[in-house]
UniProtKB/TrEMBL annotation:
It comes from Novosphingobium sediminicola. The modification 4-aspartylphosphate is found at residue 65. It holds the Pfam family Trans_reg_C. Residues 16-129 form the Response regulatory domain. One of its GO terms (molecular function) is phosphorelay response regulator activity. This is Two-component system response regulator ChvI. InterPro entries: CheY-like_superfamily, OmpR/PhoB-type_DNA-bd, Sig_transdc_resp-reg_C-effctor, Sig_transdc_resp-reg_receiver, WalR-like, WH-like_DNA-bd_sf.
Length: 251
């Protein structure tokens, strides 16, 4: 690395990643690998200690194993989501597919199946952090005088404010993760137009990160669940089996 590259690297804030796994070998190897990529890491061997630490001193992103003592990854995510929108990646085994889908439905941002490459994990982490940072910057920084602010989206009973990352249904707030917001915004911008899973992936994961169909399906299920907590009759996100999803203003 050149001196200029080192200077640029040292000037870049280090993101903090919380690692939660009862396997000490995984904790150690992943932590060392992430530190080599410029991240700061905190490690926890069980969900209970991780929950307390993540709420009191939140990291930038957390990585949870599903199977853990004292409090497993699913319970940890459920309790964390009651108070925090902290980005979360699940680590799962090949035989834990139902848990993967449940984790995404509960609000995880992504999952990776073990064994995984360090390169893939770092790519997923950076993709999520980029989406979070863009959303925060749009909400916090006023646009220059010559740059129009992102337009509000009004579709029937739905209102979306991209600049503030706010969503309302019948003027009642609905709290969404960054990924959920991007998927809904893509659908709502063109009501009635079917968006394939690949098109939704491109909008929600605007990089080379690979996600499969189940990831998009799980995000859609969670979107519907969140809106039905506000309006039990919500039906605005429509499915065309084999083709994709669309937004219907009748909702």
């Amino acid at each position: 690395m050149s001196n200029n590259e080192k200077a640029a690297s040292s000037a870049t804030p280090r993101h903090t990643i919380a690692l939660v796994d009862d396997d000490r070998n995984i904790l150690t190897s992943v932590s060392i690998g992430l530190q080599a990529e410029g991240f700061t890491t905190r490690v926890y061997a069980d969900g209970a200690s991780a929950l307390k630490a993540c709420l009191e001193n939140p990291p930038d992103l957390a990585i949870f194993d599903i199977k853990m003592p004292r409090m497993d990854g699913l319970e940890l995510l459920q309790r964390l989501r009651e108070k925090s929108a902290l980005p979360v990646i699940f680590l799962t085994s090949k035989d834990e597919e139902p848990d993967e889908a449940l984790g995404l439905a509960m609000g995880a941002d992504d999952y990776i199946t073990k064994p995984f490459s360090q390169r893939l994990l770092v790519a997923r982490i950076r993709a999520i952090l980029r989406r979070v940072e863009v959303a925060r910057a749009d909400a916090a920084e006023p646009a220059p005088d010559d740059t129009p602010a992102p337009e509000m989206v009004h579709r029937g009973r739905l209102s979306m404010d991209p600049a503030r990352h706010e969503v309302r249904w019948d003027d009642r707030p609905v709290s969404l993760t960054v990924t959920e917001f991007l998927i809904l915004e893509t659908l709502a911008q063109r009501p009635g137009v079917i968006k394939s899973r690949n098109q939704l992936m491109d909008c929600a994961y605007n990089d080379d990160t690979y996600v499969d169909d189940r990831t998009i399906d799980s995000h859609i299920k969670r979107l519907r669940r969140k809106f039905r907590q506000v309006d039990p009759t919500f039906s605005a996100i429509e499915t065309l089996y084999g083709a994709g999803y669309s937004f219907g203003e009748g909702g």
